[in-house]
Write a structure and sequence with these properties.
Length: 651
């Protein structure tokens, strides 16, 4: 921690009325300063009027929230409530002490202390709030003044001034100190994350200054005994006339028809690849005018990105299009050239990324007007023969799940010497707000792996590397042969010494830059913004935990091993996805791959692994900005795993 902050006196918030028993949870009011809690009802009524007038609506704060802090100071200074002056039993209390105040910031310390003496410069709570004390004055000698915080966490709320209409963000930083007996960094981070999640829970997010401080004190009063003290710094950032950038919640956007743009039409054509798409289907599916769709398609043709196929349908022009062989049936492949490893992708960018890792490539497209077309690329990684394919469609609809299952079955039926199956592409990361080692952020790679700590605790539970949830039904998957997972474990264990994927990634970026207009470079780190849902379709922005291996503010690609999951209803709800991830210890969530895994198991393939690059914090599909880089990162890790495998013996 930096040096001691300004010792400007800052009085505590005003004492509100004692809550009803129904409120006696984390949402109780700030402790009453009277000895017996017999406050004057008219005073309580006046306070409630002031409280409600300054209440934050959703996450938009009025200027009154800042004024409330100043009002709270003068109110507490001039409060006519009776103060306690006797010495209480020497028991531990939760004490709030002002640390300092400037024009744009406020610092408060909340800590557990043994109190020897009570004077007229403190408020002492009673009733449901017994055990909470508020200092009016700054007090020297706090533990935080001499010892650096164990960890800190910052998040930002979006503010708008009711007086000026100007927008800004408020930074709220929490610094944690723990009991002397808790020295395990991992446990400290876990406790701090649990505390933060409960503090900003969508069910009762504190929407004003008083409520925020109050909830922190109540959480410490009723639990989290491992935490010794928390310092809160509230700091107003720059003001602007326009709203700060923030994402729409899914509920705000999921039912809106997307705007008709060249980028959107190209995205849809790429998603369907190798199946061609007709303008009529695009117009019908997205509520567009067919004539407008035709104009956009003409523009994409003029740019050389798509081409016309049979029956007035269009498909993507691959950057190696002249080398692709269009066939009605796959030709016979010599036994010694039969692939033993299959790589399955779902998005066009994922297929490009995987193919960039192959040598001696040869691509076949089997077009059909009935059912699904198929694309197969044959090539080498080291001593191994590879076949890569792209699923023609993914999603939770019956048609999409049937198509992905059928495509996988056809792949394994066509190439019967395949023993190992990789499912490669993008996914959404599950963030950890306090421990950078467990924090899955954009550009990182998650490999499906059993949660060993969970397996030890729940020894009777069937191990799993992938979880699929449909309604109340949950299905788990685990390979009979986990040799691929063991190689991945070795790669992660030696990550600080050897990082072969970095070389593969850089080489592939240079190759793709010469052959395709798509950018597979790493996006600006500033675009990796972490938002957290707080209910009512509103979000807060949470700072990433600081990584120890940052280089010029950019973190290195990290490997994470843990379960991956998906579910039909999870994409629509941040709450459901968060609960699902926590329940099953997930590190990532993706589009539904259960039908692919069902096909792999049904076709008696004993070894499979999912390798997912993180492109957002949902399911990998909410934004395209990080998809190319995340896909290439995953493909580079796949090459690292394959290079760690023994040479094939069944060819």
């Amino acid at each position: 921690m930096s040096g001691r902050r300004s010792q400007t006196q800052m009085a505590p918030p005003p004492p509100p009325p004692k809550p009803n028993k129904a409120q006696a949870n984390g949402n109780g009011a700030l402790p009453n300063g009277t000895a017996n809690n017999n406050s004057n009802n008219s005073n309580n009524s006046n306070y409630n009027n002031s409280y409600n007038s300054n209440k934050i609506v959703a996450v938009t704060t009025t200027e009154g929230d800042r004024q409330q802090r100043n009002q709270s100071e003068s109110l507490s200074q001039n409060s006519n409530v009776t103060q306690r002056s006797q010495t209480p039993p020497r028991t531990e209390q939760v004490v709030m002490t002002p640390r300092g105040k400037t024009a744009n910031s406020t610092v408060i310390l909340i800590e557990r202390k043994l109190i020897d003496e009570i004077n007229d410069r403190v408020h002492v709570a009673g009733g449901d709030h017994t055990g909470i004390i508020i200092n009016k004055d700054t007090i020297a000698g706090q533990k935080s003044a001499s010892k650096a915080a164990a960890l800190s966490l910052e998040f930002r709320v979006f503010l708008v001034s009711a007086n000026t209409g100007k927008h800004s963000q408020e930074s709220r930083t929490l610094r944690f100190w723990f009991r002397d007996w808790l020295t395990n960094d991992e446990k400290q981070a876990h406790i701090a994350q649990d505390f933060f999640k409960e503090l900003v829970s969508p069910q009762d997010f504190p929407r004003d200054y008083v409520g925020f401080i109050k909830k922190i004190m109540k959480l410490l009063q009723h639990g989290y005994a491992e935490i010794q003290s928390i310092e809160i710094e509230l700091r107003i950032l720059e003001e602007t006339s326009a709203p700060p950038s923030r994402p729409l919640s899914l509920e705000e956007s999921q039912f809106e028809s997307p705007p008709l743009t060249q980028e959107k039409v190209l995205e849809l054509i790429e998603q369907a690849y190798p199946n061609p798409v007709s303008p009529e289907d695009l117009a019908k599916d997205y509520g567009w005018s067919e004539q407008d769709v035709l104009l956009v398609i003409q523009s994409l043709q003029d740019r050389g990105l798509i081409k016309l196929m049979e029956y007035n349908a269009y498909t993507r022009i691959h950057h190696e299009d002249k080398e692709i062989k269009v066939v009605k049936q796959m030709p016979t492949i010599a036994s010694n050239k039969q692939p033993t490893i299959a790589i399955i992708t779902a998005q066009y960018c994922e297929k490009l990324a995987v193919d960039a890792m192959l040598e001696n490539k040869e691509t076949f497209v089997r077009y059909t007007t009935v059912g699904e077309s198929n694309v197969y690329t044959l090539g080498n990684i080291g001593a191994h023969r590879i076949v890569s394919t792209k699923l023609p469609s993914v999603g939770s609809t019956r048609e999409a799940m049937t198509a992905t299952g059928n495509t996988t079955t056809r792949l394994l039926g066509t190439f019967q010497k395949v023993d190992y199956v990789f499912i490669v592409g993008v996914a959404g990361g599950v963030p950890h707000y306090t421990d950078y080692k467990k924090h899955v952020r954009l550009g990182d790679v998650v490999i499906s792996y059993v949660d060993k700590q969970r397996a030890l605790i729940n020894s009777k539970e069937k191990p799993y590397v992938y979880v699929y949830k449909s309604g109340e039904d949950v299905k788990t998957y685990f390979p009979i042969n986990d040799s691929l997972q063991q190689i991945a474990e070795s790669l992660q264990a030696n990550m600080e010494l050897k990082r072969p994927w970095e070389t593969y990634l850089n080489d592939a970026q240079q190759t793709l830059a010469q052959k395709t207009e798509s950018d597979f470079g790493r996006p600006d780190a500033k675009t990796d913004k972490l938002f957290m849902n707080i209910g009512n379709n509103e979000v807060i922005e949470v700072a990433h935990p600081i990584a120890a291996d940052e280089i010029n503010g950019v973190t290195r690609l990290r490997l994470h091993l843990g379960p991956i999951g998906s579910g039909r209803d999870l994409v629509r709800s941040d709450d459901l996805r968060t609960q699902f991830a926590r329940k099953f210890g997930l590190l990532a969530t993706d589009v539904e791959m259960s039908s692919v895994l069902d096909s792999i198991i049904g076709n008696c393939r004993e070894s499979f692994i999912l390798v997912k690059g993180i492109s957002d914090y949902k399911d990998g599909m909410s934004t395209r900005k990080w998809q190319n880089y995340a896909s290439l990162s995953a493909a580079a890790v796949v090459k690292s795993v394959i290079c760690g495998m023994d040479a094939p013996t069944n060819v």
